[in-house]
Amino acid sequence: MSAQAYDPLAGRRTPDGPQFDVFLAGTVFLDIIFTGLPAMPAAGTEIWAEGMGSCPGGIANLAIATSRLGLRTSLAAAFGDDDYGDFCWRTLEEQESIELSRSRRFEHWHSPVTVSMAVERDRSMVTHGHPPPMPMSEMIGAPPRSRAVIVSLSPDEPLGAPGGSPGWADLAHRDGALIFADVGWDPSGAWPRSLLDQLSVCHAFMPNATEAMAYTGADTPRDALYAIADKVPLAVVTDGANGAMAIDATSGEEAFVPAPRVTALDPTGAGDVFGAAFVLGTLCGWPLDDRLAFAGVCAALAVQQFGGSLAAPGWGDIADWWHDVRESAAHGGAYTSSLLRRYAFLDRLVPTVPVGAVRRAAATIARYADVGMGPPVPGKQPE
C-alpha cells in the first residue's frame, strides 16, 4: 500500500498562499554508508560490513526531513548526468515527493560522493566532488514563493549584504519567506563574529551549542542563547543529548526541553531533522515548548538508525513512538510520566495521522524504500 500523505498545515492553507512551505538550495551528495564494521580497515586489508545503505545526502538530508514531515518542499541543486545523478534525482522526486524545477542537470559534471564508515558510535568519511558548474543564485533565478527558506550562514554568499545583487535567499525573504539560518563548523578556527551580522534579515538562528559559543564568545550554551537572542527574533541552541533551548521574542516565550533518552547509533543528519521539525512547529504556530519537544523527538528517532536521510522519520514513525509511550504508561516510572506530560500535545495530532502514513526508509542500495514507492520483491529481505 502506498504511503498516505499527512498535511500538518492543511488548516492554514489558502488559495492565494505560497506554493511551497520550504525552499532549499545546496549540494546533493550520493551517500554510501557502510555499517556494522568491526573496526576501520588497516592499510592493505579488506573487511566486510554487516550492512550498507545508499541515499542522497548533503542538502538532501534536510529536504527529505522536511518532506517526510508533510512540508511541501522545493529544492534547487546541481545534478550530474551520471548514474549517481539519476539515482539521487529519482529518489528525491519520485520517492520523497520533493519538487526539483529549480534544479538542473549538467553534462560531464561528476556527482559529489561521500562514503561513510560507521564503527560502533563513530564514523569516518571520504568525499570526492567538484564545485557546481553554475552559481546557485544564477541557477535559481527568482525563487518560488514559499513560507520559509533554510540557509547556512556563509561569508561567500552573505545574507542582506549592502550593495551588489541580492542572493536567492534575500529574494525569497523579500517575497515573504521567513529565513531560518544555521551555521557550519569553521575548520579555520577563526569563528568570525561578523558572520552573525547576517542575522539582521533572519527570523531564526539554530546553531548547536559548540557553534553558538564559538561565534558569540560565550562560556555556556545559555549565555550564547541570550547573545543570539539580541540579534534575531527566534534564537535556538541545540545541545545534543542534553536537549535544546530557545527564546522567541515574537511570542515572549523562553523554553528548555531535555532530549528523549535513546541509544544513538548514527548522528548523521540529526541536526537537519531537528531543524526541519522546528520549522514545521513554527509554521504551525505551536507553543515554543511543543516546538522544541517535537524537534527533539524527531532528532532522537533519527539517531537510532543508520543512514543520514534514510533515517529521517515520517509521521508514521512519530505516531508509532507516541503509541508506544502511551502503552507503556501503565508500567512506566517517572521518566515515562515525564514523556506523557511533555508530549501530551501529540494527542491532538496523532489521531489524524493516516494509518499508512509515511515512515522512514529501510532499504539500502535499492531503487525503492518503504515510504511507499514500490512493492517488495518476493523472497527478498531488506539488507
Q: Considering the protein shown, what is the CATH homologous superfamily?
A: Ribokinase
β content, as a range?
A: 15-25%
CATH class designation = Alpha Beta
In the CATH hierarchy, the third-tier topology is known as: UDP-N-acetylmuramoyl-L-alanine:D-glutamate ligase
Organism: Nonomuraea maritima
Keywords: Kinase, Transferase
Domain Carbohydrate kinase PfkB: 169-310
Pfam families: PfkB
Tags for this entry?
UDP-N-acetylmuramoyl-L-alanine:D-glutamate ligase, eight-stranded mixed beta sheet, four-stranded mixed beta sheet, 10 helices, 14 strands
Overview of this structure, please?
By secondary structure, this protein is an alpha/beta fold. It has one domain (10-352): 3-Layer(aba) Sandwich (UDP-N-acetylmuramoyl-L-alanine:D-glutamate ligase). 27% of the residues lie in helices and 20% in strands. The chain contains ten helices and 14 strands. The strands form three sheets. Strands 4-1-9-10-11-12-13-14 form an eight-stranded mixed beta sheet, sandwiched between helices. A four-stranded mixed beta sheet has the order 3-2-7-8. A hairpin with a 4-residue loop joins β13 (244-248) and β14 (253-257). α1 (59-68) packs across α7 (270-284), α5 crosses α6 (221-229) and α7 packs antiparallel against α8 (288-303). 45% of the residues are buried. Mean pLDDT is 89; it is low at 362-383.
Can you summarize this structure?
The chain is an alpha/beta fold and 383 residues long.
Topology:
Elements: E1 20-25, E2 28-35, E3 51-58, H1 59-68, E4 73-76, E5 78-80, H2 83-95, E6 104-106, E7 113-119, E8 122-128, H3 136-140, E9 146-152, H4 168-174, E10 178-182, E11 204-205, H5 209-216, H6 221-229, E12 234-238, E13 244-248, E14 253-257, H7 270-284, H8 288-303, H9 315-327, H10 334-342
Parallel strand pairs: 1-4, 1-9, 2-7, 5-6, 9-10, 10-11, 11-12
Antiparallel strand pairs: 2-3, 7-8, 12-13, 13-14
Helix pairs in contact: 1-7, 5-6, 7-8
